[in-house]
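User: Please fill in residues for this 184-position structure.
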């Protein structure tokens, strides 16, 4: 079924047409949402919200325009809204760090890993000062406690905790800004 016929059927309220649309685009939409949000649950919510909007706005769809343009425009606008709102603080760095640890650990078979997403996180880590980057790397390796890192670097435990928390904030902000600029 071509986009025009699918759109026509959607406008008529045909649930089978909606299922076809979902089956055709949901995987692509999910991957794009996950790429920018770095969180499975948030990406799944974005997909659900997108298709809910499609169903609600189905009567106003333009049969002469490709459906994928409409879908990705709505998704892009939703992602920008989410990423721009600092009070949401939805960017879940832990998910990206988990992916980074898996890649650094040699497990590159994970289907959730996205090279561009990991490159964003790596780029953000490179922006840290050398001291913060060292603390951050030791901390995320999971091999050292705060006390062991403090002893190793001749710093106080409170300094390690503070520098690590500041590193996380800085990385979140850099990745958030990069994600926004890539969506623009």
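Assistant: Residues filled in for all 184 positions:
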């Amino acid at each position: 079924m071509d986009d025009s016929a699918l759109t026509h059927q959607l406008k008529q309220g045909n649930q089978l047409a909606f299922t076809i649309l979902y089956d055709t685009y949901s995987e692509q939409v999910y991957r794009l949402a996950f790429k920018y949000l770095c969180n499975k649950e948030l990406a799944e919510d974005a997909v659900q919200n997108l298709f809910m909007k499609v169903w609600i706005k189905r009567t106003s769809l333009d049969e002469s325009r490709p459906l994928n343009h409409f879908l990705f425009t709505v998704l892009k606008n939703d992602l920008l809204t989410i990423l721009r709102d600092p009070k949401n603080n939805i960017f879940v760095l832990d998910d990206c760090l988990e992916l980074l640890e898996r890649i650094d650990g040699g497990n590159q078979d994970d289907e959730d890993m996205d090279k561009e997403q990991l490159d964003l996180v790596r780029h953000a880590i490179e922006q840290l000062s050398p001291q913060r980057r060292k603390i951050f790397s030791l901390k995320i390796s999971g091999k050292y406690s705060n006390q062991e890192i403090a002893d190793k670097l001749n710093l106080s435990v409170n300094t390690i905790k503070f520098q690590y928390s500041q590193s996380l904030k800085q990385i979140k902000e850099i990745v958030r800004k990069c994600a926004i600029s890539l969506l623009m």
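For context: The radius of gyration is 21 Å.
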